[in-house]
């Protein structure tokens, strides 16, 4: 059910922004809509999600109406500060958003449109489990204004899917992709590598299957063992092996070779797109530090340097909104040092790179050594931008440590 919420200052019951916070209506704005429901809990997952037996009084059938109460509250809060502006991206994440009826997702999207407006060329993404996608579902979503579907493929190999507790059949991925494409949606597929028992050959098979689908976008994430998950307990008890760092590095290199060979280019350490217009604009907004409001239990938001996060459980989320209160559990305004660290951490991961001028003064002294070690591109650095090489992408955390001292 997700990691613990961060510590922070209390958030006001009315959700009002601090009086001294200056909201720039010219900054791009995104909306994230969290749907916290899953049929089963995957053993590796640390997201704020709930199966039917974990809801304890919360209801899926009224969830859309509940979330729309927060949308209305956000509209009032931003309008009071002159910060109301159209959304340039909307992202339905989870959980499994497509466990809800397509009509509920459409109503939630309509609420965002009526409250904030949505840019004519906005990117509107829905995450989906392959088993929950059908032609009728995607046609209804496309008619509502959805432009993109992110399909949780994870692997094409049955025993790897079983190790991850994924319940879909591999062949359903192709069915889902075909349905989404037929409805005119752009398609992204999500992969995970490094699962217990997964070989390099297994991973190559999954990559080949993904490329054969001709997606517009691929995300490929190394499996990370999160505390408190089923998988972490299995590893601690010695029932399954922990991920092998060297094998995961080999898998990443295979991903780069196969996806590039399939016509996709990396634009963030774990993401590849067929063209610039196929990149996830919503995720790029996170990496670039623009504004977004996260709706739903456990969702995080960011406006003009202020961050806040909602209560985690759907029942607590619903109860607060029923009382006319903000669901925010806490908030913070990171200091300059924290903001600089975050900028280096996020901006260095994307292909456009990080301006050297945004690196702390002490960190700039590390740039020649990073060039010599083959971790950042020398010509780009001399021109004023830190851009990771292939080796640097494998050791991105080490690069960040060097740049931040």
UniProtKB/TrEMBL annotation:
UniProt family annotation: Belongs to the anaerobic coproporphyrinogen-III oxidase family. HemW subfamily.
Gene field: hemW
Radical SAM core domain span: 23-264
Pfam (any one): Radical_SAM
Matching PROSITE patterns: RADICAL_SAM
Taxonomic path: Bacteria, Bacillati, Actinomycetota, Actinomycetes, Micrococcales
Listed SUPFAM superfamilies: Radical SAM enzymes
Listed PANTHER family: COPROPORPHYRINIGEN III OXIDASE, RADICAL S-ADENOSYL METHIONINE DOMAIN-CONTAINING PROTEIN 1, MITOCHONDRIAL
Localization, UniProt: Cytoplasm
Protein name, UniProt field: Heme chaperone HemW
Alphabetically ordered keywords of this record: 4Fe-4S, Chaperone, Cytoplasm, Heme, Iron, Iron-sulfur, Metal-binding, S-adenosyl-L-methionine
